[in-house]
Write a structure and sequence with these properties.
about 170 residues, alpha+beta, five-stranded antiparallel beta sheet, three-stranded antiparallel beta sheet, 2 helices, about 35% strand
Length: about 170
């Protein structure tokens, strides 16, 4: 048994005395770790890219909805007796919502200019001035139609329909 222990000690001494470059190196574990890190990095980049695309789609959808709803809500808020008219804006027809106040008559004008739908609040009868207008939505078209008490506004984002109270006799 003593001989066996001596053999083991001799073998260990021989292994330790070998130069490090002669030892057999194990490259499998570090290589496997690098492969896993590369896969995780690719998954992270893919996930971030997909998230960005989904967020961009959601943002554009929300902007479209916001534009449509702003137009519809503006019309509903200004709806009254003899309040809705069609005017002539800088780039085509405009929707004019008239307010009759003690201080005078005012108009909220919704019209298309430079591929944007804008809203301008002005004294009735004054010329259109796009520098005073507030952008509601991006759109290359703005079409109005009225039938049976229902005002339909069509834009690039879709169609908004508003039932006018003033045209139903409740104004």
């Amino acid at each position: 048994m003593n001989q066996r222990n001596t053999d083991i000690l001799n073998a260990l001494t021989t292994i330790r005395s070998e130069k490090p470059e002669k030892r057999r190196r194990n490259y499998f574990a570090p290589l496997l770790m690098l492969v896993f890190l590369a896969i995780l990095l690719m998954a992270l980049v893919t996930g971030v890219t997909i998230y960005k695309e989904v967020a961009d789609i959601q943002l554009s959808t929300n902007e479209g909805r916001l534009g449509k709803q702003l137009i519809g809500n503006t019309i509903r808020a200004r709806d009254g007796a003899d309040a809705v008219r069609i005017g002539v804006g800088p780039e085509g027809p405009s929707l004019v919502l008239v307010e009759y106040l003690d201080t005078g008559t005012y108009e909220t004008r919704i019209y298309l200019i430079n591929d944007a739908i804008v809203e301008e609040y002005a004294v009735s009868g004054t010329p259109y001035d796009a520098s005073r207008a507030v952008k509601l939505a991006d759109s290359s078209k703005l079409v109005f139609s009225y039938q049976d008490g229902l005002l339909t506004v069509e834009t690039d984002q879709g169609t908004t329909e508003v039932a006018l109270r003033s045209m139903q006799g409740d104004g």
